[in-house]
């Protein structure tokens, strides 16, 4: 079971029940106190994920959790490390965030670098508008939400490179030697899965080495 995820000073605690999560919060408070740190209750929130089968639902309302003798609030949506997590387990909110971000970056680039060469624009667009941070994490979403993001990607290319709205998308991408939206999404997912497998194998090798060292130590004793 994995119930603690951490990145620097950001923690995610996962538990199957109210009591189990409160116990984790209590342990976190004790561990933080031992190194002279404390949890910021104003930045700490709780989220309830309902079971997929309604018959498995225990309750819809729960008492507030507490840490440092302060109650924590419940939320339906929260941004963690730039990724928006929703208690419905849909990624639509994060897709909307990414779509809004690409429009913002494209408008900023169009204002500041309108007169640059195509080669410079391609590099700028690749760095600011094609570097999707966490699209490989999108697994459950509505088709319409992703279609709007695909349309936003094409529209931003046309605006930044000065193409007419009715210009052929295929011809435009061919002239710019630019990937289409689906290819870009597939490449990001393949890269993410490759890195994930690499890290998984590294952790597995470390675990095997630790087990081996433990066995050798016991043999020597």
Walk me through the topology.
Elements: E1 4-7, E2 10-13, H1 18-34, E3 45-46, E4 66-67, E5 70-71, E6 73-74, E7 77-80, E8 83-86, H2 92-112, H3 118-128, H4 143-161, H5 169-176, H6 181-220
Parallel strand pairs: 3-6
Antiparallel strand pairs: 1-2, 4-5, 7-8
Helix pairs in contact: 2-4
Overview of this protein structure:
This protein is mainly α and 221 residues long. The chain folds into 2 domains: 4-75, no CATH class; 91-195, no CATH class. Helix content is 52%, strand content 11%. A hairpin with a 2-residue loop joins strand 7 (77-80) and strand 8 (83-86). It is globular, with a radius of gyration of 23 Å.
- Mean model confidence by pLDDT: 86
- Percent strand equals 5-15%
What would you call the structural class?
A: mainly alpha
Q: Give the tally of β-strands.
A: 8
Query: In which order are the strands of the major sheet placed?
Result: 1-2
Sequence of secondary-structure elements: EEHEEEEEEHHHHH
Spans where pLDDT lies below 50 across 5 or more residues: none
Compute the CA-based radius of gyration: 23 Å
- As a percent range, the share of helical residues equals 40-55%
* Number of discrete helical segments: 6
Largest β-sheet summary: 2 strands, antiparallel
Name the overall outline.
Answer: globular
Distance between the termini: 32 Å
Number of domains: 2
């Amino acid at each position: 079971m994995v119930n603690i995820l951490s990145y620097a000073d950001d923690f995610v605690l996962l538990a199957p029940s109210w009591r189990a999560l409160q116990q984790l919060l209590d342990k976190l408070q004790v561990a933080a106190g031992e190194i002279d740190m404390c949890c910021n209750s104003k930045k700490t929130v709780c989220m309830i994920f309902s079971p997929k089968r309604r018959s498995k639902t225990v309750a819809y309302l729960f008492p507030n959790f507490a840490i440092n003798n302060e109650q924590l609030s419940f939320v339906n949506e929260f941004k963690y490390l730039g990724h928006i997590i929703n208690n419905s387990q849909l990624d639509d909110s994060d897709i909307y965030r990414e779509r809004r971000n690409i429009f913002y970056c494209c408008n900023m680039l169009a204002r500041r670098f309108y007169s640059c060469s195509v080669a410079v624009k391609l590099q700028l667009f690749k760095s600011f508008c094609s570097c999707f941070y966490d699209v490989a994490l999108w697994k459950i979403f509505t088709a319409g939400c992703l279609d709007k993001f695909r349309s936003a990607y094409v529209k931003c290319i046309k605006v930044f490179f000065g193409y007419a709205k009715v210009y052929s998308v295929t011809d435009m991408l061919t002239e710019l030697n630019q990937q289409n939206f689906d290819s870009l999404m597939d490449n990001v997912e393949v890269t993410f899965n490759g890195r994930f497998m690499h890290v998984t194998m590294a952790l597995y090798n470390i675990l095997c080495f630790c087990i081996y060292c433990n066995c050798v130590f016991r043999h020597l004793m």
